[in-house]
């Protein structure tokens, strides 16, 4: 795992070592660990140029055929921390009523409990190290961290549903999992996002990663509302429209007035004003034989039902794939519970 060297002995205590200590020493350690991290600040990803190059090498070496098996996109985290590295703001985003990881981290009492829990459930890990804390804070009690689209799954989709040298449009570019995939393939990429923080991170990703890959295609990032910006894309000029649109107001990525959940404050209004417009525009800008690929969450339930039932004379639903999302090991109760999944809908432009 790519990670900076520990800056304190606090980060070098394993869970099994901590568990062997008497209660008083455990408590003293937790106090010191909380003080240490309060002084250090949140453990955002820190990657050097050589580490970025290594992550890119691993992603380029991933085999799309091993990720897309039948109608299942297999779980793989290759390239994920690299994409996340460019978007530290993602740790601040709230999901519905839950706290963000940064909010839990900033509460000394909750941080103490989180470190203690990490020590107990991962005896072979360093419970107060940044990597372990990030993992714990994603799903700590009443805390949820937002997820990036997995670059390996994005590569598999682009490899399967767009030609070499083709043009990919991503109308909700988000945290860059799909952009990173495009940079490692022979594809042009146009990403649209309304968030200043997201577009800044995406442009930084292009600036840092494209030269290391010898990337020669277009990688353009547009800041704006997708339902407005797509009108400017020429008709039949795109091979693949591929995105994971916001799940209405489940994840609030920013406070800009053009954020879709602010612009359309009801689910029905959001579906009609944002999602339906996006799909209609996709039918216009896709070349014949091109594809519209949409990943939508199961919450709210109305979203996958709307996409599944959507009809258009030139876009036909070709198949529905399942995107695997790994659950944390300590939450698994059986092998059947190892993964939760989300639907990925593939529409073909037939005329």
Describe the structure.
With 351 residues, this protein is of the alpha/beta class. It has 15 helices and 9 strands. The chain has a 9-stranded mixed β-sheet, with helices on both faces. α9 (151-161) packs across α10 (177-183). The chain is globular, with a radius of gyration of 21 Å. 42% of the residues are buried. The model has no long low-confidence stretch (mean pLDDT 91).
Uncertain stretches of 5 or more adjacent residues:
none
What is the SS-derived class?
alpha/beta
Shape: globular
Order of helices and strands: HHHHEEHHHHHEHEHEHEHHEHEE
Largest sheet: 9 strands, mixed
Radius of gyration: 21 Å
Give the number of DSSP strands. Answer: 9
Mean pLDDT: 91
**Termini Cα gap:** 47 Å
Estimate the strand proportion. 15-25%
Strand order of the largest sheet: 1-2-8-9-7-6-3-4-5
Characteristic terms for this protein:
about 350 residues; alpha/beta; about 15% strand; nine-stranded mixed beta sheet; 15 helices; globular
Sequence-ordered SSE layout with sheet pairings:
Blueprint: H1 15-19, H2 23-40, H3 49-60, H4 64-67, E1 68-69, E2 72-73, H5 80-85, H6 101-105, H7 108-121, H8 130-137, H9 151-161, E3 167-170, H10 177-183, E4 188-193, H11 196-213, E5 219-223, H12 226-229, E6 238-243, H13 260-263, H14 267-285, E7 286-295, H15 302-309, E8 315-326, E9 339-349
Parallel strand pairs: 2-8, 3-4, 3-6, 4-5, 6-7
Antiparallel strand pairs: 1-2, 7-9, 8-9
Can I get a quick summary?
Helix content is 41%, strand content 17%. It contains 15 helices and 9 strands.
């Amino acid at each position: 795992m790519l990670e900076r060297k520990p800056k304190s002995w606090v980060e070098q205590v394993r869970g099994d070592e901590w568990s062997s200590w008497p209660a008083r020493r455990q408590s003293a350690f937790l106090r010191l660990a909380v003080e240490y991290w309060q002084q250090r600040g949140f453990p955002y990803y820190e990657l050097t140029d050589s580490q970025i190059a290594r992550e890119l090498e691993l992603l380029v070496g991933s085999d799309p055929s091993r990720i897309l098996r039948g109608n299942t996109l297999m779980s793989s985290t290759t390239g994920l921390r690299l994409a996340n590295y460019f978007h530290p703001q993602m740790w601040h985003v709230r999901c519905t009523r839950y706290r963000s990881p940064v909010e839990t981290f900033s509460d000394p009492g909750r941080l103490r409990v989180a470190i203690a829990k990490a020590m107990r459930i991962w005896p072979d890990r360093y419970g107060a190290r940044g990597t372990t804390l990030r993992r714990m804070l994603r799903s700590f009690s009443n805390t949820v961290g937002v997820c990036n689209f997995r670059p390996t799954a994005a590569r598999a989709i682009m490899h399967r549903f767009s030609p070499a040298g083709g043009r990919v449009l991503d109308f909700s570019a988000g945290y860059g999992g799909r952009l990173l995939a495009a940079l490692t393939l022979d594809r042009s990429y146009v990403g649209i996002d309304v968030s200043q923080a997201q577009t800044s991170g995406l442009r930084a990703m292009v600036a840092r990663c494209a030269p290391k890959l010898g990337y020669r295609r277009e990688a353009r990032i547009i800041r704006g509302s997708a339902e407005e910006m797509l009108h400017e894309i020429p008709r039949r000029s795109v091979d693949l429209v591929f995105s994971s649109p916001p799940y209405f107001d489940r994840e609030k990525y920013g406070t800009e007035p053009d954020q879709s959940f602010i612009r359309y404050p009801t689910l029905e209004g959001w579906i009609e004003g944002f999602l339906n417009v996006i799909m209609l525009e996709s039918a216009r800008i896709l070349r014949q034989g091109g594809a519209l690929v949409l990943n939508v969450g199961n919450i709210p339930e109305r979203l996958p039902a709307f996409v599944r039932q959507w009809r258009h004379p030139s876009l036909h639903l070709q198949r529905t794939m399942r995107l695997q999302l790994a659950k944390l090991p300590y939450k698994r109760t059986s092998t059947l519970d190892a993964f939760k999944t989300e639907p990925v809908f593939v529409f073909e432009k037939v005329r």
